[in-house]
Amino acid sequence: MADEVIVLDMWASPFGMRVRIALAEKGVRYEHREENLENKSSLLVKMNPIHKKIPVLIHNGKPIWESLIIVQNIDEVWRDKSPLLPSDAYQRAHARFWADYIDKKVYPCMRGIYSGKGEEQEKAKEEYIEVLKVLEGEIGDKPYFGGESFGFVDLSLVTFYCWFYAMEELGNFRVEAECPKLVAWAKRFM
Fold this sequence. Notes:
Elements: E1 5-9, H1 14-26, E2 31-34, H2 42-47, E3 56-59, E4 62-65, H3 67-77, H4 89-115, H5 118-139, H6 152-158, H7 164-171, H8 175-178, H9 180-189
Helix pairs in contact: 1-3, 4-5, 4-6
């Protein structure tokens, strides 16, 4: 019996993009169902009754929530293809830390830039730039966060790259001027 894989998602979601990229990296076929977040489907509400948000991976009828958890599950279930997490336990914990850092820092700063006004927006912009600088320091001169190959941390951050331009326009700054190595890293994916 073939795996039935369904992704409930919205095209612009950086969190949903993570799931789609992970599945593509693993070569997993799936059905994509676009969600209208203003009018959530009954399937979304049924499959994610706690948060009622995307993305949701439904694997053989069983739902999995939260993008980083979904990506880790994909890596475990289809472990024989293109590993995303390192095999070493310490390196795996390190990768999970940085992915968690990205989730706790990048998107909240972005939200502050696009929804804030005046001083609040300026503070969010400054914090956003500092967060990106920390990430740039972590990647250093390596081609990927984990070293020589694309992995979990890269996947966790790269989906926010498409939003850099919007943040720049709203905050009147240039990410590349502040973090040239990070932008060079992101451009390699494009």
